[in-house]
Write a structure and sequence with these properties.
Helix content: 40-55%
Radius of gyration: 35 Å
Distance between the termini: 30 Å
Shape: elongated
Length: 178
Amino acid sequence: MSELSKKNLSLYNLSDEVKALDRLSEELGGEITPELEQLQDECMQLIKSKVDSFVAFTEMLEDEIELANQRIKKLKEFQNSRKNKIENMKKFAMMALNHCEQDEFRGGLGSIKKLKPLKQLEVLNEHEIPVEYIRTVPAKHEVDKMALKKAIKNGEYEGEAARLVDGAERIKLSLKSI
């Protein structure tokens, strides 16, 4: 086992090792010695192993995210069911108060009390409301980026207010199907 395989190198560090081996090969005038060839082979095997581990770990993290999303969905469903349960219990308590013609039930630790309804505004004709009670909500204008991008690609827009530029570098990780 060589020194290279004894080190616990990251994928990034392994790429440095590949570059170092390339420089060494250049220094030797392009000659590939058996030792250099063995190091290159070993380095490539380590890279393969690291890539597999890297992709598998990333897939595991994505699975954990999906599991968390499923858990969040179930917790929201649970939360909504509890809110509905509380609303149903309040309706039942109101029915019981009305049935007994009572405004309040008292227990040893708590009470259930009928409250007066809150006043709610009902607007019958918006156009007759005085201006001091009208609030102006400014219109929101935003660029339709998809349409503008398509127009630029198709040569339909040639203005200077927008242009297509290269986005960030992207990477795709995938596991081979077995």
